[in-house]
Amino acid sequence: MIDRASLSPVRFTPDVEEIQPDEPQTARDLAETMLSVSEKTYADSGHAIRSVHAKSHGLLEAKVEVLDGLPAPYAQGLFAKPATYEAVVRLSTTPGDLLHDSVSTPRGMALKILDVDGDRLPGSESSHSQDLIAVNGKEFNSPSGKAFLKNLKLLAATTDRMEGAKELLSKAFRGVEAALEAVGRESATLKSMGGNPHTHILGEGFFTQLPLRYGDYIAKFAIMPVSENMKALEGVKLETGKDEDAIRHAVQTFFEDQTAVWEIRVQLCTDLDAMPVEGIEAWDEEKSPFVPVARITALPQTAWTEDRAQAVDDGMHFSPWNGITAHQPLGSIMRLRKLAYQRSSAFRSQRNETPVTEPMQCPFGHGVGAATASTREATQTGAT
What we know:
By secondary structure, the protein is an alpha+beta fold. The chain contains 8 helices and 9 strands. The termini are far apart.
C-alpha cells in the first residue's frame, strides 16, 4: 500500500505543456469534422444532436459532497474544503448518431457541478459550473491529435449509415476485446469501434483519461461506483438484441427505487517522465493511486424522460473547458477539443427550440442536491 503522505506530486507550471505550431489548424479540422456529423444527423431528422455522445441513457439530478480532512495535495481547487453542490449527471454512449444498443460503443459520464466559485477558464467566464467528462476506459483511443482527427474522419464517414453492418462489426470486435481482456489487456480502439462489452452502465467506472490541472498540481480523475447495489452490477450483461434502448431502460429500472453512489477520485502526477501531460497512456497506479476526494449521490428518480432530454440533451452543454482555472484541461488533445465543443454547442443552440444555456440549479426541480444554488441568470456558453 502506498503511503499517500510520502507522495511528491509535480507542481503545475505552464511549461508542462508542449504546444505544437500546427495545433490551430488541426483544431479547425477537428471541429469541422465533428460538425459534419451533426450536419448529417440534422439533415436526416430535423433535430440537432451532439456530434459525439449523442445518445443519453440517464439524466440525473444528484449532489456532490467534497470530503472532509483531505491531505493538502488533494485539497485543491473545487475540492479545497468540504462543501455540498447540486449536480447533473448525463450517462451516454459515444457515437454521434442514435444507434441501436446492440452496437456497443464506449460509455460516458458527464458531470456538471453547479454554483462553483473561482476564477474561470477562458470562454466560460459567464458560467458558474465545473464540468468533468469521463468515459469507461483509462486510455484515450488515439495517440496524438492528428491520429484523433484521422480516426474521427473515418467514423464521421459512417454516420447514419450501415447500422446492420455496424451491429455485425460490433459483435466481432466484442469477441476480440473479450479475448484481450481474458489475458489482462484491452484495446481502446476496438472498444471505440463497437467492441465494448454489453454490460450494465451503472457497474462501470469512468475516467477523464487525459490530465487536468489540480490546483497547484496535475491530475487525472476517476468516477467509480461505490454503493453495494452498483458494485453488484460490475460485469453484468445486458440483453440488447431486441431492445434498442436497453441501457436506458436498465438505468430507469434501477432508479425506480434505488440510490446510486459514486466516488470522485484523483490520481496526482508524481513524475512527468513516467506520467507525461502530453501522453495518452494510463498512469501507473503503483506510483500514484486514485484517492477519493468527493462523493456523488443520486436518489431514486425518473432517470430519463422526454422533458429531461429537452432540458439536458438539447439545452445543456458539457465541456472540460467549462470550469475554473484550478482545473484547466492539459495536453494537446484537450486543447484541440475546445473549439469543437464550442461549435457543436452553437450548432445545436441555433437550430433547436431549446437553446443551450448554463444552468444555475438543477433543471428537474426536485431539489435532491444541496440548497446552495444561487439565482443568477442562466447564460449561454459554448461547449458540447
